[in-house]
Automatic annotation (TrEMBL):
Protein name: GNAT family N-acetyltransferase
GO MF annotations in UniProt: protein N-terminal-serine acetyltransferase activity; protein-N-terminal-alanine acetyltransferase activity
Keywords: Transferase
Family annotation (Gene3D superfamilies): 3.40.630.30
N-acetyltransferase domain sequence ranges: 18-185
Database matches in InterPro entries: Acyl_CoA_acyltransferase, GNAT_dom, Ribosomal_N-acetyltransferase
Cellular compartments per GO CC: cytoplasm
The species this protein was found in: Spongiactinospora rosea
Amino acid sequence: MLSDHWPLLGLRVRTPRLELRPPTENDLAMVADVAARGIHEPGRNPFLSSWADRPPAERAQEILRRHWRHLGAWSPSDWALGLAVFESGRPVGMQHMHGKEFAVLGEVLTGSWLGREFQGRGIGTEMRSAVLHLAFAGLGAAYALSETFADNPAALAISRKLGYRTDGITRYAVDGHARPSQRFRMSRAQWEATDRPQITIAGLDPCLAMFGAERPRPVGG
């Protein structure tokens, strides 16, 4: 089976209403359909590039290219995990987690997108909680990082609600304009002190070496 050679295919993270998993080809097609239907209001791009402003077919193709590019470049010292997010069996978006030299630094950077039709219902907060659980409880991370443009109030609210601390400002040149981005950082101790929904992880043990991770110490230990 393909999962014998790429055990990430068996990874599952579940919250009370969501399942996050590496997408199969069929999953990826459905997620691309969500992106094609729209991610944000016109003129309010929350990303470093303008891929979500492109025509529907190009948005869908970008989802495929990005996923395949990350798979092809994967190594334990530099990886990017893309998890398709499902609610009641239907795809709603993608949650990403990146790690460079994770075995040394123990840090992950998260990012995500959610179909516009599914926004405003707390799904973004729940999927971020899920990937934080994977990072800290699953991989034993020391820190989780996030970064959000200063004019993206929904994403800023998620980071603050989940207990991140501000970690400075980065300025980016986007479409010929300077845009400030707020950095956030959460330590393992801060994460352990927060209230969280019930979250479970399945299929992680065979994947640990792919992340450059060892079996983590128990939460609270």
